[in-house]
Each structure stands twice: as structure tokens, then as C-alpha cells.
């Protein structure tokens, strides 16, 4: 752990309290003699107002909840560090990007967008991916998503979009879902959404894990170097485990069996010391090349294809510490895209410009006034000095008589700093034009990149997108809206629109798709790295199994970093044929095949054999239908033969002399799409 990380933890120490073994007191430090009974006038008499402990306790409880975030309410976070491995000094003045080896403490919050704080985590939605860098020049917040584009181009449309995607106001339904009339009515009447909707209907909207999810800064920012030379940039963070997704049926099953699936996955992997890492990089465009592309680089509904603008990776993000208190840290953390450091600046992206106002305004409401920066999770690690005073929840005690600039009584301190001294100086962009409410003509192409995305998908990914459209638009009650959506997406792909029209019962579209044949392989999840590390295998097992066979297989899995859960009919221990015990940590009732990346079918004897076999067959069928790899031990052959699963791709049997090695490879592959289980 580096010095700055130690400083951050040391700074937080006065705020981190372990109450174990202490005496109960009020918030003023007064020891309490009775915490079971309120003060009364007689044993059965009225409660007295003078009971200060009762009033303090109830008042605090009444005020424990703060307004949840309007969007990104359902979130989870972790601590870590960013390590620079390539200097970016040539491009930016930012201090934490100068010297390779520099480590900066960070705090990351992942979230869904549409759902409330209590909604499930595996819903079809955009995922927030926000990082707070505690640099020596102040906090830098990189506030992004797991999708590189957004629904709208101008921030003035943001309240409209959020109103449309949230539960409908007349009945407060549906929760955490975009499959309803108002969202699709908004989409059809605001066609700048086309590109983002293609991403939302894709597997990108149902990630396997926060640890296996791409991150994007979405907006166009600037790097500015020591000489004042600027480049346009877009931030990217890539998971070292590759970007992987769930499939729709699996995501729905997980939402029922474990609505905390994503946060549990992150928490457990950090607790177990597993590596959670991402590479951070940027795409860069010279200012002279601003207008050389067939899209506007300031348009947040457009991406910069990696084949045209490669990503330059320069550092590693590592998550290594879970939060101590979800409310104090995860809920009170305040991100703001306007929190930048010298060398990182803004552009005229009209969506970004609105967010620079909106985020600060939101924190003032949620966190009770302007002093939310004094909350420990939001405080910078570097010293900070200014003339701001008072306000709700003020914690700093400022000495001295001066609280204004300029002054002579304190020798005009705190004083300003020049660019060379580390002061923030806005990039001197030349701006001219008439004051007008309008949108650039270069923002008007809404379908070319949506078509590019479609062209880039594998056949399986296209199938999933078609099914997502059928499900989502099929939930829309208004026939007019369904027709408008079909007529809109014929611009992206005619065959897709025709199939959708048939599925949702409206007229066939008459338009034509845009003439775009290009593709970008980087956009397909099929091209992501695949590793077995931390993927989870459920071992379905009963009494009388072959201990040596199971031990050798489990040992091979653990050696490759695969996570193993022993699943039986009951908790406790089971004995193999030689009397050796194995400990069961999940039961066939408390878990589900959807919660595992793979199954190892051992089988065996159980108290209620019929129920045991029936549960195992259900597990096998589910895993098979979700295209997952299945390993079958010699003692599991009988139960496997009674399932719907068929020998073939991703099915491995213990009779194979290379079973363990081949099973690990199959686990890494994750899905076997050529199984004949799909029904249109």
C-alpha cells in the first residue's frame, strides 16, 4: 500500500468506530443506564417529554434515510488503487498521470440506472461505473457507464428521458424495467435514442458481474499538457477478466433467487482476496482532426470506433477493500464530472455541459447542504483551504478573522496559484457564434452507428437483441407506440423490424435501413478474453461418492482459480464410499443452477432419493438450457442420463482421461451456443 493510500486511511481513522466492548452513550457521550424503557410518570403512566435519550434515539431513527438518488439509486462500491504504468506527461499535466509507479487511492461505485434502491441487480439496464481518484491535486471523478453512448444529445432532455424510463406515475409500475409504454413512446419520438437502444437490447445490458464489465467515460473531455496543448479524449476501463454477460432467462431467474447477485459477487471476491482489476486508457484525437470523422466527436450518442481511434492504456485499477459501512460510504459518496484536476478539461458536449450543473445541484439536496465534501468518503487526501464558511452540517472549525478574498489582514491568504504552480486554468478554447437554441447539423444522423453496432454483433448476439426487442416492445400496451417503434428501427435493420412487427402485432414497416456496411469487432462480446478465474462451479453431490475422483477434480478447479460450492440435499457433511467427509455449503433448495457458471454432477445417495434426483435433474436442465458447461463424474452418469441434457458441446464425462483439463477449458468458454435448445 502506498503513502497516499495510508494517508487516506489515516485521515478516516477518527471517523471509523468499532463499538465492540464499549459502554452505551448518547451522541453527547453521556453513559446510559437503561436502554429498554422510556421515562414514564409511574410504571403504567404517560411517557415524559424530558426523556432526552428517547428523543435523541427516535429523532435519529426518523432521519436515518436521505433521499435516494433519482437515477443510479441501486449501487454498490469498493475501495482500491490506481497504478500508473505508462506516463501520460506528453498529453496531460495531471499529476497522478506523470510518473510510472504512482499509486492513487480510489473509490468505485457500480449501479443500475432505472431501479429504486431496493430493486434487483440483474435487470436489463445501463450500469453506472463511477470512480473517485483521491489525487494529491484534489479529487478527480470519472463518472461513466458500462455502455459508451447515451440516450440523448442535450442535457435539457435528461429530465424527459428519466421521467419516461422510470415507473409510470399513474400506477408506479414497472420497477427497474424499460419494458413499458412511456419509455418506448419516448424512444419513438426522440430518435436520437436509436444507438443507445441497440446497446440496451444487447447482452451488454445484463452483465455477468461488476468485475466483468467494461466502463466508458461516455463524454468527450480534453487532456491538456504543460505547454497548454490539448487533445480530445474519451476514457475507457477494461476488465482484465474480459466483459461477459448473462442471458435473459438466467438474469430473470437470478433476480428471483438472489436480487443482490452483483454486489454479493463483488463483496465475496474482494473478501477472498481475488484479483479485481481493470485497465484504464483513453482514445485521443488531435484538435486539428476534430471534423475529419463521419460523426460529431462531441455527440454523446456516438462512439469513436476503436479501429479508427485506438485505445491507449496507461494504468491499472485494482479493487482490494470492501466498504466498512454501506450508508456512510456507498450512499454518501458524491460524484461529480466537474471534479477535475489540472490537465483534464471539458468540451462543448451539450450533455456534459448540463451534467456539470446537475450533479452538484443534486448533492446539495441529497446530502443536506454545501458541506457534503466534508463527509469522510468525499474528502480529498490533499490539504484544502478556502473562504467558504458555515452551512448545514459544517464540521471544519476555521480559525482566524478573515473569510474573504482579497484581504490584507491575512496577507491575502488563502492565495491563488498559477498554472505553473498547479493552479487550475481552463483551456483557452476560442468560442464564437450567435446565442441560439438549436442543435448542430452534425448531430442529426441517428441510425448509422446503430447499424454499425448491429453489423458488429455475432449471430447469437443478434438473436438476443431480436428477442429483447420482442419482449420489451411486446410489453407496450399502445398499438400506436408499437407501430412507431417498428417504423423507427427499420432504419437500423429491415429484417429486425419486420420480425418485430410480426411479434408485436403491427403492420409491416415500409422504410429502408441505412446504407452502412462497416462493422467494429471490438463491440462484440464474442471477442472478449475468456478465463476460468473466479467463475463459480456448483458440485451436486450425495452420500457414497467417489472421494478420489471428486478430490482430484476439485483440486484442479481450485488450482485454476475456479470457485467451488458443494451443493447437497442438506447442510453439514457427506461421506464418500471410504467414509471420508466433505462439507456441504449450499443446498439444492437454497441455491439454483442460474447462480453458477458451470455444474459438476457427482450424484450419490440421499435421505429422500426421489426428491434429491428430481432437484438435480432440474439443475442439469437449467444449466443445459443456459448453454453452460456441465461435467459429469462416473457416479453422476445415471442422473445425467435422465435429464434433458444431451452429450455434445460443453458436456464432459469423467471417463475422459483429460477430464479436469478439458473441464477447466469449457468453464473458461462459459457458453456453448451450438446446443439445440433455442426455441423462437
UniProtKB/TrEMBL annotation:
Catalytic activity: 2 H2O2 = O2 + 2 H2O
Gene3D superfamilies, per the entry: 1.20.1370.20, 3.40.50.880, Catalase core domain (2.40.180.10)
Pfam family, any one: Catalase
UniProt-recorded Gene Ontology molecular function terms: catalase activity
Domain called Catalase core: residue spans: 25-413
SUPFAM superfamilies, sorted: Class I glutamine amidotransferase-like, Heme-dependent catalase-like
Keywords, in A-Z order: Heme, Hydrogen peroxide, Iron, Metal-binding, Oxidoreductase, Peroxidase
Record-listed E.C. numbers: 1.11.1.6
TM region(s), chain numbering: none
InterPro entries: Catalase, Catalase_AS, Catalase_clade2, Catalase_clade2_helical, Catalase_core, Catalase_haem_BS, Catalase_immune_responsive, Catalase_large_C
Reported cofactor(s): heme
Keyword Lipid metabolism: no
EC class: oxidoreductase
Entry similarity comment: Belongs to the catalase family. HPII subfamily.
Its biological purpose: Decomposes hydrogen peroxide into water and oxygen; serves to protect cells from the toxic effects of hydrogen peroxide.
Protein known as: Catalase
